[in-house]
## 1
Amino acid sequence: MKSRPAWRQQWSTLLLLCLPVLAWASETAEDGVVPAARVPVIALIIDDLGARATRGRRAIELPGPVAMSFLPGGRHTAELARLAHDRDKEVMLHMPMQALGQKTRHHHAGELMAEMPQPEFLDTLARNIAAVPHVSGINNHRGSLLTQTSSNMAWLMQALFDHGELFFIDSRTTAETVAADMAVAYGVPSASRNVFLDNEATPEAVRRQFRELVKRARRDGSALAIGHPHPATLKVLNEELPRLEAQGLQLVPVAQLIERQKERRLAWQESSSP
């Protein structure tokens, strides 16, 4: 029997090696557009809203589905939350939580404290949720002590699970946080902050952090950033957000990013199972 020429054997081997790449390419539309499930996504949260009306309105005017997170005791919280909802922005509660080194006697009204009895803790949480109209999720304000206290996070996540309609974002104000793990344990939709945009509130620093956000989204498929209504932050975001689509990225609501990350985890688990 006549053997195949060496070049044909080499070509067949090369074709087999390329099959995974060809399979990925077959999912791309004929016009070269990457399927939506493969486009890296970014979500943004603007924190600390509610105290200043002008800054709040400027934040709400940011282009695209940027989430707005309101302090429950802010003078303008209810008014701005309704405006954000009317402008199709996600509305979140920026939940004050006890920080490391903070004395119990120095806490503010509406702040969750580690030493609170459970009934007081849950009552404070419920009042804060009720203070923000159209709330769809929560992220922590400060909380470097509370988010590493398992018992408090268990109370919080059980309450959010019972509520049934709220997600949780761990702002990661401490590397020792257990909040995201507790959210998973209690079945609460959740994600963690990847980038703080404006620890240094200058245009150059914010732009540098925004580039880091884009880098992470491209690497991991998704990334979440938190910023504040500083003039420098709003200036950079007004410039950079309209450019995302041309860079092959998509700005999405926080809830959509959570769902994307969940789908990626499930797909990875299925591919890793025997």
## 2
Amino acid sequence: MASTFLLEYIEKDSIIHRLNGAAKLICFLLWTTAIMLTYDTRLLVFLTVLGFILFKVSKIKFKEIKIVFYLISIFLILNLLMIFLFSPLEGTKIYGTQHDIFKIFGNYIVTQEQLFYEFNIFIKYFSVIPVGLLFVITTHPSEFASSLNRIGVPYKFSYAVSIALRYIPTVQEDFITISKAQQAKGIDISKNVKLTTRIKNISYTLLPLIFSSLDKIDVISNAMVLRGFGKKNKRTWYQARKMKTSDIVAIFITAIFVVVALILIKVNNGRFYNIFVK
């Protein structure tokens, strides 16, 4: 399978794919909660490694999601640079000490505390990214929607989520088609032109894409109304999967991480694990 430009379901036969969609959502929310609660480097590194192990278990190949991974990595690096640009001594404020490495100019001093703080930010993202990708690319939209409905989410909202997930590949295909059409007209968005020119030329692709998407939304909306969608209080689902023991075990294990995060907050006297104060 070719690499995906955006996030879409990738069918495989793995233990991750066989989990209930709602169970995967609950696990993802618990996993994210544990990461949001603490900046303890030990837990974050453990969850990062575990996330990549789960990715391996899912049988998803890196080449299938590499473009998404690269895009996320670029935004992550930019975020780290912005943190240093707007708050170069944030690490010093958090950890209460200052160990200078070298000075750039003014208040822009590279310190051990700032590097450690930004390292924690880095692994925070990378402990969420694999699991977030897994949730989207191993869960079939229809099965996920039916699972949401089973746990009490209104079927109208569940169906909206299903359509959104299904529509991602369609937007991808439209973008490629429109992009090729624009390039045939001489609008170059390749690496052969300057970055500013590429950004300007991409806008010629995005505008038709937006109008095309709005047109498809209108068509889908009218089709749903004509078929009487929303008239009944309940509906059946083409794909549905009941909760199994493996789903309960997965939720229980992920909940343990939240408990560990809360314990570490107590042990560290706060959210941050301070290696500079003994």
## 3
Amino acid sequence: MRRTMRVDFIKMHGLGNDFVVLDARTRPLPAIDAPVARALADRRTGIGCDQLILLEASKSADFRMRIFNQDGTEVGACGNASRAVALLHGAAARVETAGGVIAVEPIGTGASVDMGEPRFDWEAIPLAYGMDTAVMPVGWETLDQPGAVNVGNPHVIFFVEDTDAVPLETIGPQIETDPLFPERVNVNVATILDRRHIRLRVWERGAGITRACGTGACATAVHAMRRGLAEREVTVTLPGGDLVIAWGDDNRIRMTGPAAEAYRGSFEWDDFA
């Protein structure tokens, strides 16, 4: 007789970037690998999400957050998921991620997240070879001279006149998988409206175009500030809504914005394992 395991989940989103959250902090789950993550994230045959989030106990923080993209790859950071998890946890917390320990705090219907310090060295992005990451001497079709920032995961940022005019669905995967980026990369196309307001669309590594990308908003804002194109606090407007990004004198990035719980449910583990 087959033994089954019923697993609870919480469906959440941050500005439309949606997650399936599994809470294994008190009830351990079987090991999650890429095939299981892909199966759960599949919008036709699974629960469906941009990212699968696994919460576990941690020895170095209040708890640990693991992040799996839609394609099953595990990544180091997700800003929108960090806000969602803060809302779920219901109190300020230090959260261990593969990209480092972050600090989250629920605020009203959203959260504020200390995303840590940005990294600009080409080895930290990482790139395949050395170059100035503030103005990179490379290009793809009509996009050129980007910048690169690692905010727990790697981002390349292009400033354009009209972000909506960029065919991100075709050029995004080309840039994501270019050999210049040995760990692949998230692709950001942004229009600076003024020194306090940026419009942004993102092709996410392993997920494609999403309605919002918190780390992309952080990377884009910091890159604009680094280039002297924006103030140290800006509003970043994504297709799903607005985030406020501040880069403090302590070199740490703080992201503030909404998050929400959509619904709860459960599934049979063996249906996806």
## 4
Amino acid sequence: MELKAVCKINIGLDILRRRSDGFHDVETLMFPVEGLYDTIGIERSASTEFRQSGLVVDCPPEKNLCLKAFHALERCAGIGPVTITLDKRVPFGAGLGGGSSDAAAVIRGLNELFGLGLSTGRMVEIAAELGSDTAFFIESRPQICSGRGEIMSPFDPPIAGLWLAVIKPSFGISTAQAYAGVTPHIPDRPLAQRLAAPISEWQTTIVNDFERHLFALYPQLGELKRALLDAGAIYAAMSGSGSALFGLFEQKPELTFDPSIFVHTEQIAACSNE
């Protein structure tokens, strides 16, 4: 079987506090990017194998989240061996959740392939054990995510019909590096209240808390965000822990960047939270 593993952007990312378990409580709107995805293939086989093509990932195969997802299902459901193929198209080290989405796709695929009958809630629980945003990709629908990212509430922002541009410089940023310099704080208003305001107000009220210190470390990020705004974006921000950024446009943008910059554009379709 073949599955799409879409990526996501974060519209707003409030880092509220550091927890006693070493993680951070956050609040963020995760929004799926339907046109930018990896492709996962899963087939029964005599022994478990993992094969990858496309973008080269700085991660040994045995540590890939696809295999971690398989082993999680193997432990809880006793499934047999499979061959997993990954055609990697989503940039990594970008804050787009590509690896997490791959893991969630494997969980969904194995549930179907072996007829496990796992509920969405159970798959979310398994996914949450693999990573803070992996649970989001079980359903891949717009959600306000809190806690570590695993507590989700459907939220459909008024951006259908707008154009989305996702860009990424040649370097990536690790999640550990991003969190190392962050200063948690509680905003004056919850994210959902700020998202309810007109999009024209978002640029001054909806922020990604990683931007302040990461833009100081990597000035190119601030330059790229400014380039999106100068190109007509009505809202622009960094996604997740970076290094990808995105802009929302009323018209299809005409973007001119150095060839080293990854660029993806798509028109946002209406989302269903049913």
